Amino acid sequence: MTWPDPTISDDVPPAYGDHWQDFRDSPSTGTTAPSDPLAQLNGKPTNFLCVNQRSGAIKGTYIINPSLQIPLPVQRDEGGLVDIVKVCVAALGVGMPPVPEGERKNLYLHTQDGSVDVDVWLVGHKDLSQGCGKRTLLHVSSRDGSITTKVQAIDTIDPFSLNVFTRDGRITVLLPRSFHGPITMTSGDGSCTLSDDMLKTSTYLGVADRTTRYFVGQYPPSSAQQVWEGDEVKVETRDGNIRLRYVDEVVQLFSFSSSWCNFSKLFHCWSTDSYI
Questions:
Q1: Buried (b) or exposed (e) across 240-255, using 16+ Cβ within 10 A?
Q2: How far apart are CA 41 and CA 60, in angstroms?
Q3: CA-wise closest residue to 142 among 109, 101, 95
Q4: What is the tens place of the pLDDT at every residue in 238-247?
Q5: Regarding predicted confidence, which is higher, 164 or 24?
Q6: What is the residue extent of each domain of the chain?
Q7: How far, in Å, CA of 41 to CA of 75, rounded?
């Protein structure tokens, strides 16, 4: 797995939804969002969103509707029309030609120096027949900083591909229960683990060259499609641990106070016995 160095632009798009923290911290109780989640999020969906900044953390909530037809914005310079989205397109490789429509990122988040902590809400369809059939492409990266990415579903979403990369820092990814597909985790110096709930639904595919692979959900038969077009997650850090779990899993946090209390009781008993 290779990751090109993103090109930096001085024209940084404003942060999208940094003021939505009250809702993003509320617990999720299922594979899909609560009724009328868009009203609670207090924001409108967008598509093909790019945030590419020189420094500083990226934090907030992003609502992506892959079915929105948003045209490529253009501006004029001395050479004529210039696609300003090439600022983000260039992140895929310096000097590359324009990205084909099928490879255009629905969400691209990158910071040169800072952490990333985001909620990504994917808008789906109430009617299964309304799906567009294309994968939703998501990219989250930092050159220096930890990353936490939470993906949540509104109704039945199309398959999505999520790429997460940092050169230095831990990575935590939370996925909806509807996720079905391969997970690839690469850590140069750290562990790669799935939660207990996710392990119960996963097939272990092995580890090689510091890369661990799983397939979540029913593994396709040998006669199935040779090119996987469903959900997919690729995560890489050169120095840090990688953790993946479901978005609605309850995490048992270590309680220092209770552990210290138990330790104190044990120490007290030992001290009392020693003086008898």
A1: bbbbbbbbbeeeeeee
A2: 11
A3: 109
A4: 999 999 999 9
A5: 164
A6: 39-68+85-91+99-220+227-253
A7: 31
